[in-house]
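Q: Predict the bound structure with iron/sulfur cluster.
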Amino acid sequence: MKLLDKIGREFSGYNFVESGKRLFDRKPLQCSLYVTDRCNLDCAYCTEYDNSRPHPSLDDLKKWIRKIRELGTMRIALVGGEPLVHPNIVEVVRYCRELGFATSLTTNGFLLTRKLVAELEDAGLQVMQISVDRMTPSPITKKSFKTILPKLDYFDNSKISLHITGVICADTLPESRAVLETGLSRGIPTEVRLVHADPLNRFRVDRGPREELERFIDSMIERKRRGEKIHTSEAILNYQRSLLRGEHVEWTCVAGYKLFFVSAQGKFWICSMVHTDKHIMDVTLDDLYANYHKKSCQEGCGVYCAVSASLLVEKPVRVLGKEILARTKRVPSMFRTSSRPRTDDPKPRRITNPDGTHEMNGSANGSPSADDRVTLRESV
Ligand SMILES: C[S@@+](CC[C@H](N)C(=O)[O-])C[C@H]1O[C@@H](n2cnc3c(N)ncnc32)[C@H](O)[C@@H]1O
Ligand code: SF4
Ligand code: SF4
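A: Predicted complex:
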């Protein structure tokens, strides 16, 4: 990728002009649409899949997507369940782009093939989040680099902007650092984030030891400040540290207003945790605005996309300023890597050494190319 393209991509993150409009008007910034409840995996921390439900039809999805756009929503995040198990996922992406949405998709990556990546790119997909929790699978989560590393090559000349996100809990913590190193060493923006709070005890996982988690979050804050490609804002890292310390954070949740969710049955949800029975087809801008208030569930909230949007709406200059600064620090390293040939380490190495420890993987040249226009921020 050309140096200027690389620099352009570093600053495309917030799509400043369009996002700016949404900070000052009453229209929504982002909708997360569950394109299906069905999933090919069964992560122990997840409450967002249900294989007893059929896929929504393409016609229904299109109707809901039109309505979401009519509300003025700028970005759509295609989530699930596992979006790639929906038989019409490519058409869904194409339709979102035809309507002018900035479009992202979050996937466990298991069903990705070279052909599917090319089809999604052709349909206009701009951003893909692949979820990777560990280096090797465990009974808690199968989402590991063992499956994903061989697929990263599919993105070598793709316009899709790829990033990697992992969940930290007691099971994944011993490998979270290696997940982060592996993603970053390939030039892929990567983040690992705390498992959501679990007030209803629905998860089958422990969160992990507080001090160790805090040290890890602190190290990510440091790296973010140094300009490494930690794929989340410093504000969200600070927020996670406050969660661990049990510190109160002052914020106003904009879920249900600036961002909202639509279920795979077309229901309007405030966020992934707070559901309503109202159908998206019946929702008005006034309904959305009525959700602009502090919520009783804010304390300990782990819906990071909602926290992120809320902090952005509340303190746009501070949040954006820090992000721009962090990305500016990445520019010198682009000069260093831009002159290196792509071929110095094109194939993934083994991810586990014979002694069972994990090595850092791959070259700094593995960064996928990306569309310069829009990058969506946090996903669920
Ligand atoms: C519900 S999944 C749906 C998309 C896809 N199946 C996947 O796993 O990427 C969306 C994202 O939520 C994350 N997630 C699910 N349950 C979570 C939890 N309890 N805490 C934090 N993140 C969670 C997943 O790891 C994934 O990155
Ligand atoms: S996190 Fe994603 S892959 Fe895991 S069970 Fe939930 S929906 Fe499926
Ligand atoms: S505070 Fe968190 S859980 Fe409550 S509505 Fe907002 S995003 Fe959802």
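A: Strands lie at 30-36, 75-80, 102-107, 127-131, 161-168, 190-194, 259-262, 267-269, 275-279.
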